[in-house]
Amino acid sequence: MRAVSVAIAATVQIGNDATLAGLAEVRHGTDAGAETVLHVTVEVGVGGTLLVDGRPLHGATGSQ
Q1: Which of 39, 42, 49, 60 has the fewest other C-beta atoms within 10 Å?
Q2: Which residues lie closer than 8 Å to 25 by C-beta, 6 or more apart?
Q3: Which one, of 20, 21, 4, lies nearest residue 12 by Cα?
Q4: What are phi and psi of 62, to 5 degrees?
Q5: Which one has a higher pLDDT value, 38 or 5?
Q6: Average pLDDT over all residues of the chain
Q7: How many Cβ atoms sit within 10 Å of the Cβ of residue 16?
Q8: Whole-number Å distance between alpha carbons of 52 and 24
Q9: pLDDT at 64 > cutoff 60
Q10: Is 20 helix (H, G, I), strand (E, B) or coil?
Q11: Helix and strand tally (H, E) in the chain?
């Protein structure tokens, strides 16, 4: 990942699509500045993430 990050001169994050979409909303979208956000996506399936203080919460076993 570091090679990709250096090649494009940007931070690269890998993760679940719902988690990364929620993170993008908190950083740059309609939820910018919110302390706590529940982001839900409905596409082929249903996914979501809970973000607190701009960071996604992960399950007790590290699940996203």
Answers
A1: 60
A2: 31, 32, 37, 39
A3: 4
A4: 90, 0
A5: 38
A6: 85
A7: 15
A8: 13
A9: no
A10: helix
A11: 2, 3
Which residues fall within 8 angstroms of residue 14, CB to CB, at 6 or more apart?
Answer: 1
* 8 Å CB contact between 41 and 56: no
C-alpha to C-alpha distance for 7 and 50, rounded to whole angstroms: 31
Tokens describing residue 25: 């909303």
Give 29's contacts (C-beta < 8 A, 6+ positions apart).
none
**How far apart are alpha carbons 50 and 60 in whole angstroms?**
14
Mean pLDDT within 4-17? 79
Place of tokens 């399950």: 59
